[in-house]
Amino acid sequence: MRSNCYKQLYTLLSIMAGDSTVQSGAAWPPESTNSRTSKRKTSRRRPTSARKITSKPKLTKRRVTKRKNENYLTAAISDIGKELRRLTSGKTKLQGRLNRSRKDLLGLKAKEDNIRDRLTKLIAKEGPIHEHQRLLKQSLTNIKNKILKVKKIREEIRDPE
Questions:
Q1: Would you list the domain boundaries of the chain?
Q2: HSE-CB for 115 with a 13 A CA cutoff
Q3: CB contact set of 28 (below 8 Å; sequence gap of 6+)
Q4: Is the pLDDT of residue 83 over 70?
Q5: Cα separation of 138 and 152, whole Å?
Q6: How confident is the model at residue 22 (pLDDT cuts 50, 70, 90)?
Q7: pTM to 2 decimals?
Q8: What's the average model confidence in pLDDT over 83-95?
Q9: Cα R_g (the chain), whole angstroms
Q10: What is the largest CA-CA distance in the chain?
């Protein structure tokens, strides 16, 4: 029954894959593969009085296969656990770097705001300073004009024509 199911499954898979052996009608399974039934002993000997019966039970292939599968499963689970621990530690490191970057950015933003506030205060002070500078220049030009007038008057007094 089982070999019939395998035969049908093999036929379906081969048809889907476009295998030429199924289309040619080759026997299944291929002769190169070893089947389970060929490895089994067909007859078992019964213990006789001359032979000793051992107390150790012989392990069948089924038990060994289960243990191998369990070993593969435990190895796979341990690998998954290791990978999970590695990813978790990577995540915590990344979160730490992200938090440090966030703090650095907040610090830079605070410095920027502080500098911007100081700049606006300086600009506010700059307005009256420019006004005072303009007034000083105007008064300097007025003084220069008065000095020129005084020089003209002095020359006129010294040099009467």
A1: 127-161
A2: 6
A3: 6, 7, 10, 11
A4: yes
A5: 21
A6: very low
A7: 0.39
A8: 96
A9: 51
A10: 169
User: With b meaning 16 or more CB within 10 Å and e meaning fewer, what string describes 20-51?
Assistant: eebeeeeebeeeeeeeeeeeeeeeeeeeeeee
| Secondary structure string (H, E, C) spanning the chain | CHHHHHHHHHHHHHHHHCCHHHHHCCCCCCCCCCCHHHHCCCCCCCCCCCCCCCCCCCCCHHHHHHHHHHHHHHHHHHHHHHHHHHHHHHHHHHHHHHHHHHHHHHHHHHHHHHHHHHHHHHHHHHHHHHHHHHHHHHHHHHHHHHHHHHHHHHHHHHCCC
In the numeric block, which tokens belong to residue 44?
Answer: 């078992």
Structure tokens at 116: 């911007």
Long-range contacts of 84-91 (CB under 8 A, 24+ apart): none
Res. 128: pLDDT tops 80: yes
- 114 or 154, which is more confident? 114
Residue 21 is encoded by which pair of tokens? 């052996």
Q: Give the tens place of pLDDT for each residue, 36-54.
A: 555 555 555 555 555 555 5
Rounded (5°) CA angle 147-148-149 = 90
